[in-house]
Fold:
Amino acid sequence: MITAIIVCGGKGLRAGFGFNKLLKPLDGVTPFEKCLSAFISSGVVDEFVVVCSKEDESKFREICLKLNADCVFAEGKGSRSDSVLSGLKKATGNVVVIHDGARPFVSEDLIKRCVLSAEKFGSGIAAIPATDTICDAEDGQNITASYREGKYFVQTPQAFDATLLKKAFDNAKKDEVFTDESGLFAKYVAPCKLVKGETTNKKLTYAEDFSVGNLFAGTGFDLHKLEKGRKLILGGIEIPHDKGLLGHSDADVLLHAIMDALLSSASLRDIGYYFPDTDEKYSGISSALLLKETLELIKKSGYKPKNVTAVIMAQKPKLSPYMEKIKQNLSSLLDLPISSVGLSCTTLEGIGTVGREEGIAVQSYVLTEKLN
Ligand code: MG
Structure:
């Protein structure tokens, strides 16, 4: 008989939602529901124990009901160890598989492999090799040693022989602190059996972690006329040419298309609405300033750029020598890494308005991320 203990006791203070983060929908489904679904469909679990605070219990119960899972509830305590122990006391299985409710991307396969390992060896702990170097800095200021070889990041599920885990809890000293049960078991029973974890089995800690999949696409197009005696500004960079773009502002057609794409991703109005060409204060203004205001506008609605792309259509001048410089400037104006900015240019083979050098056009596509 296998019991899953899903730990949902944390207040999730670091996520800053003001309520249990495991009840915050992620792509429309709460992390707790995702966890419970994975455990149900793994097909290896006979009993579910949910550890949570008394005040959250009714909300977690609703989700169990929705998934037709007959869950037992245990009260979450101050520390993780105490919460797990509280769940363990309600568990009747001979194997228990403990899981953090904050790891909703756990796979059925990983659950099965941990349980199988516990049945065979007494324990099965999901862990992945450390990809960053880990150091000792006890005082938070001086690094005294660093390692990577032989180090692992420990995840959950962590499955144990229930009797052996209870023994470990019985033997542990009252004030002893363990970040999870693998440390407790290794100290008081035996080394834990490592089960190859999954990099996708991420833990949701901060508010940003909840933005997974919360991406919005936007598109923008602009065309400005080329005229003698005007400066040619593209992406905030002045390009030497005998003609420049005509407009109420500096007529930076590239930034205009990007601004419209950003606004459309956030389902806002277009730049003509926010920065009308009838308003004197925008006369001759640098479009870089308008982009700054646009970023503020979308930020107020909870969006930030994730990826920005644009294609500049110009017959002349030849833009390729300036592309890297423009791209770098876009990356700095948008506060995005250069790898998140995509920029290309093309002529229109002498065809149409752009081909006849009457103007320059830009098409932009963006992705923004909604954070709340
Ligand atoms: Mg324009």
The chain has two domains: 2-210, 215-370. The chain has a mean pLDDT of 93. The first helix runs from residue 31 to 42.
